[in-house]
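We emphasize that the prediction below concerns an isolated chain of 330 residues; any contacts that depend on oligomerization or on bound cofactors are therefore not represented. The input was used exactly as deposited, without trimming of termini.
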Amino acid sequence: MHNKWMSWGNQTTVTEFVLLGLSETWEVKVLLFVFFLLLYMATLYNNILILSAIISDHRLFDSPMFFLIGHLAFLDLCMSSFATPRYLFDFLAQRQAISFQDCMAQIFFLHLFGGSEMLLLTAMAYDRYVAICHPLHYVSLMSRCHCIGLVLASWAGGFIHTSVQLGFMINVPFCGPNRVDNYFCDLPLVIKLGCIDTYPLEVMMVTNSGIMSLVSFIALLLSYALLLSTICSRGPSEGTSKAASTCTSHLIVVTMYFGPCLFIYLRPYTRFMIDKVFSVFSISITPFLNPTVYALKNKEMKAAIRRLLARRSGQVSTHGRPGASGKSIK
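Result of the prediction step, given as a token string:
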């Protein structure tokens, strides 16, 4: 099998792929450009604001929950930035081609950030489970060393996941069609363009990406089910209602993130029109929603952001005021 792949590899002639985007209609393209531009700017602003607030407030930075939220914000920045800026630039430049190397790089970073985020969301659910179900052991189970270990494990898991994917893809020969029916490269789209029987590669994709998504999603559902069960068993109160509402909103966003991943990766590839919509949810909508659900609804986070903005506005007004340096102006 290896010799067969090597012989095919010598016949690879494709040096670039053509990204077809999300629509061929000019009016729709303009609307999509404006939509993605505004969405990307909002995503950058929200996640950078959250990161800055956590880093500047030692109480938040020392909190396991906000430490993990900060890393989620960083991953959301990465996830939203690996393809969207290029799509916006290519739209303005009217150039839709992407080199073979850049296409492989997009696949690598998509699954690095995506795999790491799946594992980090699982770690965040574990953090909430320990905080609510085992509050007396929270300090020991979620120490700073344990939090760093969870973050490093998330990145390591994402790196192993994407390395396996790319390891299979890198030797696939491409000698025929080179049109990718989306605005970024992804495994299911590119695998189908190979000049070999792609079914074994599709099985690999289902085994790797599909099973990873499914296991992470089931783990998250079980953890939130335990959380909701514990919360409801404590009887009705304002705190109980708030915690249940928070868990429910987390579940909605998690489902919006994992649902498209399960639909795309947990089956041998057959093209559906809704795949494009799901891909937009995974890499653009979810990174925009995560800050709102996980951070901006939290009172401590909102207070930290207000303090951060107040300091920034105070610095601007001080620097912008005549004589702010302390010297009088004659």
